[in-house]
Amino acid sequence: MSETPKLSNDCFALPEGVSWTPVDEALENLRGSARQVTQSETLGVLQAGGRILAENVTARRANPPYENSAMDGYGFANIETDGERVLPLVDGRSAAGAPYLETVPAGMAIRILTGAKIPAGVDTVVMQEDVALDGDRIRFGAGLKTGANIRPLGEDVTAGQDILPAGRVLQPQDLGLLAAAGVDRVRVCKPLRVGVLSTGDELRQVGEQAEPHQIYDSNRPMLLELVRRWGMEPVDLGHAGDDAEVVHDALDRAAETADVVLTTGGASAGDEDHISAALRKAGVLNLWRVAIKPGRPLALGMWNGVPVFGLPGNPVAALTCALLFARPYLSVLAGGAWLTPRPLILPAAFSKNKKAGRREYLRARLNDAGSVEVYHSEGSGRISGLSWADGLVELEDGARQVSEGDPVRFYPYSAFGI
Fold first, then answer.
1. Could you report the per-residue pLDDT of 245-301, keeping only the tens digit for each?
2. Which of 54, 68, 194, 302 is at 20 to 30 A from 158, Cα to Cα?
3. The domain 20-37+192-333 is classified under which CATH number: 3.90.1150.10, 3.40.980.10, 3.40.50.720, 3.40.390.30?
């Protein structure tokens, strides 16, 4: 595969005059800037599960590769009549893996088992349940159509047929299809290396002593596992304090070890927002103010040719923005498709008066009645609500009064690949 194209430094630039960006517009802008950055390799089918196909796959063999019986029964050359038929049996049978190699004479039948190759001289199979066996003869009623109970060659897949497209993440069922079609090796994308960097003097790592004014870094373990669940290679970039030089050095190291970098904290425009400051100083910052709750600022830019995706620091906002914005973008960088989650329309088990202006995502879960209830708090620092929930409710950009029983859009976590 030829060298993959690099992203340009201005790939995240928004049109002039844009201040607040609606969610759908932000997604479209991201989609327009996304390009594959991974190269490819060839793997055996047994090692390729979860990887993204780098090229279309064609069947090397038909499936089934020969005419075979759809059930246990008796095969013969059919003559459609209105009367009962009595046929003598040949000496032998056809079984899966042990075919009958001779021709079945006209006017005779052969015992045949499910999946067995149809012998020469046979064009129809009668179910054993419809047959009376009398020594070396069978007897069955009229009305059987020629070709009954036979699976034709290539009924499922024909040799040379495209069976899986480039960009598809190989699922267990896909490996079964590849094997059935005689494909033993496939060209797949190398895993996207996604670096995760936390910033902020207030952070300590689990196991360290934390002072009363400090908190433990919850974003990094959460995002590293999220990346792993998406089939990508997580790269732990550690933690950088609120120091411009430290952040600069951390980004330099990140660009050497990762294809794309996710950061949390420091993505806005405050005094201690050093991710934004570093990208701004390098002339590659695009600070998106997305009309979303929880969330808002996304710091997007390039560092030494590597995309940097600056997520909010609050855990709920960090996860929400990662699911909505980072996941589809990273998928394209990895060689896959742009991923759009599919919601379920379900009755609300809550009421809410939503103001216009920002699209809102509420931590939510299904109850036993099949309705959606929401977490009791909307605070973006209350990470326990993410574990309580099993998905997100989306409330559109405009004002809305939600009453119990009203239909709402619910995205289970599984819609985001987790």
1. 888 899 999 999 999 999 987 555 544 466 777 777 776 777 788 999 998 788 888
2. 54
3. 3.40.980.10
Query: Per residue in 185-223, pLDDT tens?
Result: 999 999 999 999 998 877 777 877 777 887 778 899 999
Please state which CATH number belongs to domain 68-151.
2.170.190.11
Measured CA distances, 84 to 87, 89, 141 (Å): 10, 16, 4
For the segment 301-317, what is each residue's pLDDT rounded down to a tens digit? 888 889 999 898 889 99
Percentage of the chain modeled with pLDDT above 90:
73
Rounded CA-CA distance 178/59 in Å is 7
The amino acid present at 374, given as its one-letter code, is V
How far apart (Å, rounded) are the C-alpha atoms in residues 53 and 45?
A: 11
What is the crossing angle of helices 274-281 and 244-257, to 10°?
A: 70
Six token digits for residue 202: 């207030």
What six digits make up the tokens of 27?
A: 């997604």
Kindly give the residue spans of alpha helices, DSSP state H, lying in 196-335. Answer: 219-229, 244-257, 274-281, 315-321, 327-333
Q: Is the pTM of this model over 0.70?
A: yes
Of the two residues 287 and 171, the one the predictor is more confident about is 171
Structure tokens at 78: 């059919």
For the chain, state the CA radius of gyration.
30
Pairing of strands 260-264, 306-311: parallel
CB 244 within 8 A of CB 278: yes
Which CATH superfamily includes the segment(s) 42-63+163-189? Molybdopterin biosynthesis moea protein, domain 2 (3.90.105.10)
User: pLDDT at position 1, please?
Assistant: 47
Q: Which two tokens stand for residue 177?
A: 């299809």
